[in-house]
Amino acid sequence: MTSIGEYLQAGSRLTDIDSELERGIKEGKVLAAGTIEDLAHTLKIDPGTLAETVKEYNACCDNNYDFVMAKDRQYLHAIKKPLFFAQKLSVVIGITEGGIKINHRMEVIDNDFNVIPGLYAGGCAAGGVVGDVYPIVTTGASDSFAVNSGRIAGESILKYLGK
Ligand SMILES: Cc1cc2nc3c(=O)[nH]c(=O)nc-3n(C[C@H](O)[C@H](O)[C@H](O)COP(=O)(O)OP(=O)(O)OC[C@H]3O[C@@H](n4cnc5c(N)ncnc54)[C@H](O)[C@@H]3O)c2cc1C
After folding, report:
1. How many Cβ atoms sit within 10 Å of the Cβ of residue 111?
2. CA 88 – CA 34 distance, rounded (Å)
3. 95 Cβ below 6 A of ligand 1
4. For the chain, which terminus, N or C, has the lower number of CB atoms within 10 Å?
5. Ligand 1 contacts CB of residue 156 (under 6 A)
6. What number does CATH give the domain 4-87?
7. Neighbour-count burial of 149, counting CB atoms closer than 10 A to its CB (0-12 exposed, 13-18 middle, 19+ buried)
8. Angstrom distance (rounded) from CA 59 to CA 70
């Protein structure tokens, strides 16, 4: 299947899902079956539960409203036509956001925006670096901040110590 790097280079779009699925099946990363029940057997999970889950999801699609997970309407596509596919996915936490409030010198500030002397934060420990959307297509957005906030904090610490 497409790696995150390939995915980003392709403009964050799966442009040919059929060949991607074919490749996934060949590589043993995607499973396919003619019925939901057969797919459940292949996955070694309860067929009744999977069939019920798919039925519930399809009802959301038919109603154009996901009452289970509040999925965006534009992505609601019913699962009705075989083949049915399954792929193991995993979740990765890349960064944390919304940490300690800082100023441009990486000094930690309190709720009233006053500097707490001698306290510094940078990298993922610092908050307010990005807005409400993480810019995943901006290469090095977090790494560069981690490195440079550390550098700036170091400079600020030297000044604080009078060196
Ligand atoms: C899979 C993955 C992919 C990523 N890809 C990108 C990318 O392509 N581009 C990009 O810009 N960013 C990327 N990031 C994010 C980037 O790695 C982080 O933003 C960056 O590493 C944050 O640096 P940091 O120094 O704030 O924290 P960290 O790198 O987490 O460093 C914190 C350090 O503190 C140590 N520590 C924790 N607790 C203690 C303690 N109590 N005492 C002493 N030491 C402690 C930890 O062991 C660790 O070494 C990725 C992250 C992940 C997980």
Report:
1. 6
2. 18
3. yes
4. C
5. no
6. 3.90.700.10
7. buried
8. 13
pTM over the 0.70 mark = no
The larger pLDDT score, comparing residue 134 to residue 30, is at 30
Q: Is the CB of 140 under 6 A from ligand 1?
A: yes
Bridge partners (DSSP) listed for residue 86: 31
Domain coordinates of the chain in residue numbers? 4-87, 100-160
Is the distance from the beta carbon of residue 149 to the nearest atom of ligand 1 less than 6 Å? no
Structure tokens at 128: 């307010």
Nearest ligand 1 atom, CA 140: 11
49-62 pLDDT tens trace: 999 999 999 999 99
**Structure tokens that stand for 148 in this block:** 């440079």
**52-103 per-position pLDDT tens digit:** 999 999 999 999 999 999 999 999 999 999 999 999 888 888 888 889 999 9
Q: Is the CB of residue 141 less than 8 Å from the CB of residue 130?
A: yes
